[in-house]
Specification:
About 15% of the residues lie in helices and about 40% in strands. It has about 130 residues and is mostly beta strands.
Length: about 130
């Protein structure tokens, strides 16, 4: 009895198509990242940016900060309009933190120190 190679070819073609689809669309289908000026890559194979980034879910835009360190730190958040009076400082823990306020109005966020601060503490802008 001779076995046909068609089923094997069909399975291999389906698998290669699935692998190519996963490589072409590495992130979630509902969120779109937009990297800000203070972003650096966590690692060559990692897709999560360290630092400030923007993302969209449907028509809504958000801003976030991804802290790649191991302790809490304070970040300065630049907000559009009003000069530095709208800016604020926020203590973030390791991982991603959505920045409070309107995402499109957040221009940037960057590390300013204070390792070990209390997560979520927010203060108005002060010189640093």
């Amino acid at each position: 009895m001779k076995l046909s190679r068609r089923p094997v070819r069909a399975v291999l073609a389906a698998l290669s198509g699935a692998v190519l689809a996963m490589m072409a669309f590495p992130g979630p289908a509902h969120a779109e990242l937009e990297r800000g000026p203070e972003v650096r890559q966590a690692g060559a194979s990692s897709l999560a940016p360290c630092g400030f980034f923007r993302y969209s879910v449907r028509e809504s835009r958000f801003a976030a900060y991804n802290h790649c360190g191991s302790t809490t730190v304070r970040v300065h958040v630049d907000v559009a309009g009003g000069g530095s009076t709208n800016d604020y400082h926020l203590c973030v823990s390791p991982g991603r933190t959505q920045l409070p306020g309107a995402g499109p109005n957040c221009l940037n966020a960057y590390y300013i120190g204070s390792a070990g601060c209390r997560n979520g503490d927010r203060a108005g802008h002060t010189p640093h």
